[in-house]
Write a structure and sequence with these properties.
alpha+beta, two-stranded antiparallel sheet, 11 helices, 253 residues
Length: 253
């Protein structure tokens, strides 16, 4: 009997990114169209501009995704770090969106591979925001206590999933037969929840910020967005508009 194939972190990361992409396409049908059009735009751009791959091979550009999630507390952020470490992703950078042109009560980092070779194999990254409940400009003492209590009593990830993630991170990968259920469980952790919300609580947080409500007004986290990379954003805009899909007027990020 042959031994199971060993999958290093980058292979797990590629599976994770592909799984999230498939899930998000089911949740947001327009995303599937966006990916299809981006793939065609990138191929056409490289065909017209042979030097375009200096920014990365067409394979890498086509595979690249930028995702975003939100969590509510340092404990939840540590759990995210444990999970993403299994995929060879580490926190890079610090962003305080309370200082943005349109301030929101979160601080952020991006989880991604840091080694150049790992980036070339699969560059998936996940921008992760954490609610700044200690900021009195947004949360008075009473509201902060209630938010912190709510967050302390919810569980974003199955403890068994996190334990498995820590083991995989320490080993630098895992066997193929263990990888598939692990990745599937990790992907499912970011699915939109169908659980009901408490409307009065959600509305109270919405008066602070829509982002605060999205983070602490629900019992789970989810993909806030997932975006493919494109080499010619003007051409993407033209083709998407030509398909009758409304596009925003400004580049974000």
């Amino acid at each position: 009997m042959s031994r199971p194939k060993w999958l290093p972190a980058w292979r797990l990361r590629a599976m994770f990114a592909a799984g999230l992409s498939a899930m998000y396409a089911a949740e947001v049908p327009g995303y599937a169209t966006l990916v299809q059009v981006c793939t065609r735009v990138n191929a056409d751009h490289v065909a017209r501009h042979p030097g375009a791959e200096r920014w990365g091979s067409l394979r890498r550009v086509t595979a690249e995704r930028h995702g975003a999630i939100r969590v509510g507390s340092p404990a939840e952020l540590r759990a995210v770090a444990d999970l993403f470490a299994a995929f060879g992703m580490a926190p890079v950078g610090y962003y305080d969106l309370r200082r943005a042109a349109s301030p929101i009560p979160v601080v952020c980092t991006a989880f991604r591979p840091v080694d150049g070779n790992e980036l070339s194999l699969n560059p998936f990254r996940m921008f992760t925001s954490m609610l700044a409940t200690r900021d009195r400009r947004y949360f008075d003492r009473d509201l902060r206590a209630r938010v912190d209590n709510f967050l302390a009593h919810r569980q974003l990830f199955d403890p068994a999933l996190l334990a498995r993630a820590r083991s995989i991170a320490a080993a630098g990968g895992c066997a193929d037969d263990a990888a598939r259920p692990f990745v599937a469980a990790a992907v499912a952790s970011f699915a939109l929840s169908g659980k009901p919300i408490e409307r009065s609580w959600y509305d109270e947080l919405s008066r602070v910020s829509a982002v605060a409500a999205d983070i602490a007004g629900v019992c789970s986290t989810h993909l806030n967005h997932l975006t493919p990379r494109v080499l010619d954003i003007d051409e993407l805009y033209r083709r998407m508009t030509g398909r009758g899909i409304a596009m925003i007027d400004a580049i974000q990020g």
